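User: Here's a structure from my thesis project, written as structure tokens. My advisor, Dr. K., wants to see whether a designed sequence matches the one we expressed. Can you design one independently, without my sequence as a hint?
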């Protein structure tokens, strides 16, 4: 009788642990890219991703996000380039923000300014990170705060 009770407890424990939420489980996640740019809330769309094989045998991840409106004079985009599967604080070497608003362009790598990031998931199924920072170029300062990226890939990388 005790053996059956122990087996039942083990079975229940296994079922609970196998069904609990995993931070790298895309079935439980929805793609969202939100942030404040100069204090104004924005939502971007995931535009694509890719992986390049580097000469040293490592892989480089490219993520593309954008916000386009009906006017070609109001576009914004972000490109993140970093090592595939690398996680942690300040591991993004390229965070390129582009904005073209009313004939005024801003293009820059926020890592060259005051930028902090935390990548918590970087897998074949999903990318999840938070970041904030500011960059000054050509007399213009752009501040990105409360950036939250949860990009669930349509098809996992092989």
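Assistant: Designed independently from the structure alone:
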């Amino acid at each position: 009788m005790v053996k059956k009770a122990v087996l039942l407890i083990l079975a229940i424990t296994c079922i609970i642990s196998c069904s609990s939420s995993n931070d790298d489980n895309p079935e439980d996640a929805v793609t969202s890219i939100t942030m404040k740019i100069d204090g104004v809330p924005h939502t971007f769309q995931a535009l694509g991703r890719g992986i390049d094989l580097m000469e040293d045998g490592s892989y480089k991840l490219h993520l593309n996000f954008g916000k386009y409106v009906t006017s070609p004079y109001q576009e914004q985009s972000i490109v993140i380039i970093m090592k595939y599967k690398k996680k942690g604080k300040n591991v993004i070497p390229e965070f390129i923000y582009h904005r073209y608003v009313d004939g005024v362009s801003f293009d820059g790598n926020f890592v060259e300014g005051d930028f902090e990031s935390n990548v918590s998931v970087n897998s074949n199924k999903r990318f999840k990170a938070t970041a904030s920072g500011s960059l000054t170029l050509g007399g213009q300062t752009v501040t990105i705060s409360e950036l939250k990226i949860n990009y669930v890939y349509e098809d996992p990388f092989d």
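When you compare it with your expressed construct, this may help: The first strand starts at residue 32 and ends at 37.
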